[in-house]
Amino acid sequence: MCKQHEGFAWDDTERGRFRQDFFPPVEIPVIEHKPWVQRNIPIPPGIFDEVCRIIRKKIEAGVYEPSNSSYRSRWFCVLKKDGKALRLVHSLEPLNAVTIQHSGVPPIPEHIAEKFGNRACGGMLDLYVGYDEREIAESSRDLTSFQTPYGALRLVTLPMGWTNAVPIFHDDVTYILQPEIPHITIPYIDDVPFVPRDTLRTGRWRLRSHPTNPGIRRFVWEHMHSISRIVQRMRYCGVGFHLCQCDLENPRIRYYNRFSSITLNDRESRFSQPKLEIYGLFRALRALRLYLIGVRNLVIEVDARYIKGMLQNPDIAPSASINRWIVAILTFHFTLVHVPGTNHGPDGLAET
């Protein structure tokens, strides 16, 4: 889990979205209709400031944007489970009434629960991305317009109350995790349960200690390995990188030349984190080699500290393929610089 720490989000600032080259903006299919205008529910004076703060936060996060359409839908506030924080709820009954309904349905919960029977351990992840995982197409955003103290706004991402949001979200998560279904997980909308091995039916040898780590049972190690695979799939959709030139007088000023990302196949996406990082560097240099040949003052910024150690000690790498990538990387003349993941721009080209 330490290797996959960047795949976990703890607040709205760390929440991401699905990549648009895999999941393009959603068109809202509607039948012929007349625009609707609904009077908004008045905001109680006691929570007015808090509601304004929530709306500003969503505008800054890119969830809301200005609108000048002829549609107006209601919205209101409810308390969250903690009984203190507020949640904005969009009343989209008029939109749902004219929407062509998606025919997809999530799996039956009882069938998922049966998978956990006769298991020694289990687990579940909740996708923080929520229904903000995909954007609404520009042509459909006016349908979600609503009135606020900051003027008319409209939704940029899929709203929770829209009739097709649940099946679309479930299909997206299933698409990402389909290589791990059903032997590791059976996703249910934004919940990703982990189905551990049946330790009572596959033999007592799984109850023994792991050969390379006597302090952990084998079935526990396999379970944690499955969790790591799921988190890595939700975190990465490929390798992201960009090429830029620094200003001679002020190196902080950069002139960008190339932005790119490389998708991973089923085998590559199962690489361990160190192997994936070194492979990503290899693929990025190979893709940009025509622009880098002969460059003597090349600086490569990465967000993984251990890449430098792997390049300096290629003999200790246990894999012949890793050694081959290292040899190819070292044919370039460069200075390696570590940049924390929070400030590393190319991650936005590769993560969800």
TrEMBL record:
Which is a Pfam family this sequence falls into? Answer: RT_RNaseH
Reverse transcriptase RNase H-like domain mapped to chain residues: 238-330
Which keywords describe this protein according to UniProt? Endonuclease, Hydrolase, Nuclease, Nucleotidyltransferase, RNA-directed DNA polymerase, Transferase
What molecular functions are annotated in GO for this chain? endonuclease activity; hydrolase activity; RNA-directed DNA polymerase activity
Q: Does the keyword Hydrolase apply?
A: yes
User: Gene3D superfamilies recorded for this chain?
Assistant: 3.30.70.270, HIV Type 1 Reverse Transcriptase, subunit A, domain 1
InterPro entries reported in the protein's UniProt record:
DNA/RNA_pol_sf, Retrovirus_Pol_polyprotein, Rev_trsase/Diguanyl_cyclase, RT_RNaseH
Q: What is this protein called?
A: Reverse transcriptase RNase H-like domain-containing protein
**From what organism does this protein derive?**
Grifola frondosa (Maitake)
